[in-house]
Amino acid sequence: MKLLVIGSGGREHALAWRLARSPAVQKIFVAPGNAGTAAERLLENLPLTDPDELADFAERERLHLTVVGPEAPLAAGIVNLFRSRGLRIFGPTSEAAQLESSKDFAKRFMVRHNIPTARYATFSDRSAAHAHVDRHGAPIVVKADGLAAGKGVVVAMSLGEAHAAVDRMLPESGRPAMATAARVVIEEFLEGEEASFICMVDGRNVLPLASSQDHKRIGDGDQGPNTGGMGAYSPAPVVTPEVHARVMREIIVPTVRGMAADGIPYTGFLYAGLMIARDGSVKTVEFNCRLGDPEAQPIMMRLKSDLPNLLDHAVSGRLDLVEASWDRRVALGVVLAAANYPETPRTGDPISGLPRGAEDFHIFHAGTSERDGQMVTSGGRVLCVTTLSDNIRQAQKRAYDLILGIHFEGMQYRRDIGHRAAGR
Ligand code: AMP
Ligand code: GLY
Fold first, then answer.
1. CA 178, CA 11: separation in Å to the nearest integer?
2. Is residue 216 within 6 Å of ligand 1 at its C-beta?
3. What is the pLDDT of residues 269-304, one digit of tens each?
4. What is the atom index within ligand 2 of the atom nearest the CA of 294?
5. Cα–Cα distance between 293 and 298 in angstroms, integer?
């Protein structure tokens, strides 16, 4: 069978790489892909991003199914389009993708269905937002309402930071919005440890994937600005069997039932960002309508089941008939980011020293492309060095040893990926 993966990041490289390991697969097209997917066995990059052209291609090539990586094409309705043309695709419709694309939609949904989350209020008026901040005090969280790749969120530890965030995200009364959103969501600050809980959903049934944990801040010790994610590992020990059961019962099942009850059945990967308190209670920080990046890299490294078969069941609404099995080892991925990431990443730096993958590691590409026969950086997050080892410390050591051989000008990475699990 021939399959299509839409996207060009590390998540899509990991998905396509895992799909290609299935004996049933002849070819995986990755649109548009990157220099890593271009070099991989059975993978072929397809220089297309237009949804109609992708659908034409899927039809012409009689693709078995398509799986979508990033949120933007989902929010723009690529699943609606493929389905209207009778093409098999795994992902949420644009209506269902609002769980990620609109924080306000997600919040109202959670309140309506009693799904635990931080208390919040939504504002489009600046002075009302400032007054709310003053009433509640810091720490407090200010979020732009719209897709912002994890960068539209300010966790303000002081009142000054909170007010500055409101000014940045909301226009002065009577002026057009400068930022992506003309609304902000202001939230109660949650304390605890975060984890990523990602499932496959077919509208009714849920297949949870292995737990994982991301590292959102640019700097060691979780300092500095938020990024798309600087590294991840799986499993996340904070997700104990008790926490897992509670997340399924209190968050995932009510979400899938609630979406169906609201007439917007959810299909696709569903990602709940969790805050787990010391007493084991859980709250939803956010939903994403896709796999996490970089969480997908360690998760795909550990997946032992045949991925095309799981996707097949998901697209046919039969996830109740399958289970996923996981490598018992720990997988850990360290992101190597470009100079000036996350603000204005520099591109075009030559990359050298990349090792070939082996049974216990793989280098997933994100912002890479080829220029005159040389591999160069072409995005903020460039590579994700992902290892598989018996325990977290060995996985860390292996990843950081591999990184010593890899070079590009201005390369930045965190030295402490996995610190929470290692500290337990
Ligand atoms: P989001 O884009 O909503 O996931 O927010 C990005 C990051 O901001 C999260 O991963 C958290 O680290 C942090 N964050 C968001 N909301 C809260 C909250 N209510 N309390 C504490 N931290 C938060
Ligand atoms: N790594 C977090 C995300 O994919 O949103």
1. 31
2. yes
3. 999 999 999 999 999 999 999 999 999 999 999 999
4. 1
5. 10
